[in-house]
Structures are given as C-alpha cells and as structure tokens.
Fold tRNA pseudouridine synthase B.
Amino acid sequence: MEGIIPLWKPKGMTSHDCVFKLRKILKMKRIGHTGTLDPDVTGVLPICLGRATKVAEYITDAGKAYEGEVTLGFSTTTEDRSGEMVETKIITEDFTRKQILAVLDELTGTITQTPPMYSAVKVNGKRLYEYARKGIEVERPSRNVNIYSIELLDDREIFTGETISFRFRVSCGKGTYIRTLAVMIGEKLGLPAHMSDLSRIQSASFTLSDCLTLAEVEEKVENGTIEEALFPLETGLSDLPKYEINDTLAMKVKNGAVLETPQEFLTIAGPILVSDENGRALAIYMNHPEKHGLIKPAKVLRNE
C-alpha cells in the first residue's frame, strides 16, 4: 500500500500516537507523519504510507493554515493552556477592533520568533522540551518565519474584560510556532498571553474536507475500501514547481542522472518535482551545489 491519508488528529494524542495506532490498523510499518502537532491541537495531519514516506519532508515544509484562540491576561510555561501559569495581569483597559487589527497587521510578513522551551527544536543535540522538563533554561536560536495572513475571527468592536480572548485564522510558512505568535500578539498589546485553542485546518494542499478520522480509517480497512481513500504521493508535492520530461530522459532520471537546468527553473532555489508525461512523480531535484546550470537528484522516487 502506498499513498497519503490526510488524518484529522484528535485532541489528546501526539502525532506519534497516531502513527502507532495506524500501524496497527493498517498492519504495516512504513508509515510517517508530516509535522508534529501538540497533543492539545486538533487538525490536518497528512500520513504517508509506503513509498510516499519519501515525500513526507516536502509536505512538512509546505505552507500551513490554522484557526486558534489567543487569551490575554496571563502567560504559561508552554505558551498554551496546558502549561503552568507564569505571569498574570488583570486587564483594566478596553481594546478597540482597530487596535487588534493593527497588531495582527504588524505581525504579518517575515517576523522573527524564538522557539518556546517546550518544543522539539534541538540545541546541543537535545530537544528543548528535554531541558524544560528538567527546569533548565538554555539559549534558543531565533529564526525568521513567514506569516502570509492573519484574519480576526471576531466581530466585536470593543474587547473588554479582566481577561480577553479572541479567535484568529493564520496562514504561514514552515517553522512557525502559533503558540509563540499568540504570545507576540499579547506583547504588542502590553499583556501576558497564551494560545488557548488551536486547530490546523490545512497542511500543504490537504484540508479538513480531505481528512479521515482514525475510526473512519479503521472502518475502510474493515470493508476493503481503504486504498480508494488514499491520495497519490503526487498530491503531497503539488506545491513544488513541476518539470515534465519525456520517456527517454525519464530513464536517466530513474538512474539518478544530473540534468541541465531548464531555462524556466534557473531562478528557482528550492526543490523541483520531475515527473513523466503521465504526471507520475519520478524524483525531486535541486540546484547542483558545485556546477552552475545543472540540477541533481535530492531524492529518486521511482526507479522501475
């Protein structure tokens, strides 16, 4: 079996828990997920089966969209509602819709984030959450991330209360921490804050409408229709620029040949999907690191 199952991850399970359960349901070992979702977070989690595990990293690196809620008035150790309270501040002033929208606009574009201590980022060979669980604070590397859009999902004109919560939708690039974005929204408003709810509504080209629950996967396995529900691995690569080649060149690609860079791809720095005339993905190519004007395979997907 090979392909992609867009899974709707339930609350309370880690991404690894989902993979473990699917291995039992599908009775196969070669399964991988495409980007960790915290246990408290629900949402779209594309699961790669068989040969499709080769493209998992490209789905992980593709854009994501989330719907969440930020709560102003207190912060937590984990930057979400599962953590212990760190700082509190009773809100004594009202905020206008215009003020909230101005902050969201300010955080749109390329911004710099520092990963939370409770995250899987590695520092000196260890995950940050391993340090955090032992109460050890370490210096965390900041990084630039891309926020394509933030939409306020609340029609109030005035935001008031001792704590204030409002929902938002964000579209972003890889490596973005929405928990940290919620904290940054609070900082811009002069308040401690945390992310009080989150759901991933899109990962690469996969959305909620594509997803199956674990129960639905199990049901389709039982009635023999699971393979009909799989998306081909090509779907997970639809965000990549595509170079279609003829059968003669396809044989060389399957053997890992270095190719001349086509004119239309000369300015592209990232991965290129090379496919045959039938649209089958054959390989992922990158610019040759030493030879200008050539591309070399980063990953051969089919060699038969």
